[in-house]
UniProtKB/TrEMBL annotation:
The lineage of its organism: Bacteria, Bacillati, Actinomycetota, Actinomycetes, Kitasatosporales. Residues 1-21 are annotated as: Disordered. It comes from Kitasatospora misakiensis. InterPro entries: TPR-like_helical_dom_sf (IPR011990), TPR_rpt (IPR019734). This is Tetratricopeptide repeat protein. SUPFAM superfamilies: TPR-like.
């Protein structure tokens, strides 16, 4: 199940260019939030052009760096939004170039507000791009630097606490993906605590940030075997997202599906887990009909959870049909971004093999899937043993069992 990568969230609004440039910036943010990423690329391109020119009415050469503090800050945020859209579209090389430019522009200014705030946001974008390109240690360094900058800002001015909460949530995701689960849990708990204080003062403004953080807290608690706490957090995240999806289904139904998937993973009751996973798949089926391919990675994850819930109830043949679809989707995602998705594909293949072994069907296909999973997970376990080592050991044992049972 994918972690919920936190969105950029609300930012303190710097002084800056009026009219066309700011309108394009605000449109970019709305389009990214709505998941309309191709349109967001066009809007961010126009906003960046106007900002580099200074204003629409007083054009300057495109290469000129904006000198007005507000203009520079807004341009940095535009580049962050562009990076987010590129990441969602799996255009990782462009995402890295965009994030690198944004960070370079931030570092070219004095590290004082409003520049520290956009520099911190651009570092989060850089961390996302580096992770997507399979460079996890560099991603961690960029994300940690963002947290440090936002901590300084929030200490001086409480208005930056939402940015700190968001950066901590990002850091928890990166640490968890590196197998550093205890540290990930600590920073995610800090993020949730900050969001709770913010939400008590302004619930509407911070409902989405709180839901994201609580959803990720459930993952962190499950990774530390805190099953009861993980279930409470997962159920809280589902409740938060149900309210958000009721108010704005176009934006938050995908988020609800992700939270339902986490709930399915943490439920002790098998029937409850199956119900949550089935609802997540139903939501994503409907979204996929209107936005084909946009939700592929999450859809594949939720299909795998649905299959796992069926297998836990002994319904292995039904689970085998679901894993066939999940693996096909995950292959598509791995083809788009091998560095980021090979682990997910390896895990999906391992489960694909397991349900066939348990059902006693398609043994040759099960063995082929297990062998492919071993090849993928072996390399990952060498890079991040804490995260992939246990899974590799399990699929190696499964491969041996299938080989010994082969004619």
């Amino acid at each position: 199940m994918s972690d919920e990568t936190p969105r950029a969230g609300r930012r303190p609004q710097p002084d800056g260019p009026p009219d066309a440039a700011r309108e394009a910036f605000e449109l970019s943010g709305r389009l990214v939030l709505a998941g309309r990423y191709e349109e967001a690329l066009a809007a961010t391109g126009e906003a960046a052009r106007l900002l580099r020119d200074g204003t629409a009415s007083t054009p300057r050469p495109a290469a000129t760096r904006p000198t007005d503090p507000g203009t520079a800050a807004v341009l940095a945020h535009v580049l962050v939004l562009r990076c987010e859209a590129l990441a969602k579209l799996n255009r990782w090389d462009e995402c890295l170039r965009t994030a690198s430019e944004a960070v370079d522009r931030g570092r070219g200014q004095a590290v004082t507000a409003p520049f520290t705030a956009p520099l911190g946001a651009t570092l989060l974008g850089l961390g996302t791009a580096l992770w997507g390109l399979g460079r996890p240690q560099e991603a961690l360094a960029a994300t940690q630097e963002s947290v440090d900058l936002h901590r300084q800002l929030a200490h001086a001015d409480p208005a930056y606490r939402p940015q700190l909460a968001n950066a901590l949530n990002h850091l928890g995701v990166v640490l968890s993906r590196l197998g550093r689960h205890a540290e990930a849990l600590d920073v995610t708990k800090e993020s949730v605590a900050l969001y709770r204080r913010l939400s008590s003062a302004d619930p509407a403004a911070h409902a989405h940030g709180l839901a994201q953080a609580v959803n990720n807290l459930a993952r962190r608690q499950a990774a530390r075997n805190q099953r009861r706490r993980a279930l409470r957090s997962a159920e809280e995240a589902v409740a938060l997202y149900r309210r958000l999806a009721l108010a704005n289904p176009a934006v938050h139904r995908r988020d609800l599906a992700m939270a339902l998937g986490n709930a399915a993973r943490t439920h002790v009751g098998r029937a409850e887990a199956l119900a949550a996973a089935a609802e997540a798949v139903a939501v994503l089926d409907e979204l996929d009909r209107t936005e084909p391919g946009v939700h592929g990675a999450l859809f594949a994850d939720c299909l795998s959870l649905h299959a796992a819930a069926l297998a836990d109830l002994g319904r292995f043949r039904e689970a085998a049909g679901v894993t066939t679809r999940a693996v096909a989707m995950m292959r598509e995602q791995a083809a788009l971004n091998p560095a980021a998705r090979r682990g997910d594909l390896g895990v999906a293949l391992a489960f694909h093999a397991r349900v066939r072994a348990e059902a006693g069907i398609e043994r040759a296909e099960a063995l082929a899937a297990a062998t492919e999973a071993v090849a993928l997970l072996r390399g990952l376990a060498a890079e991040i043993p804490a995260l992939y080592g246990p899974g590799l050991a399990e699929v190696l044992a499964l491969e041996d069992r299938l080989r010994s049972a082969a004619p």
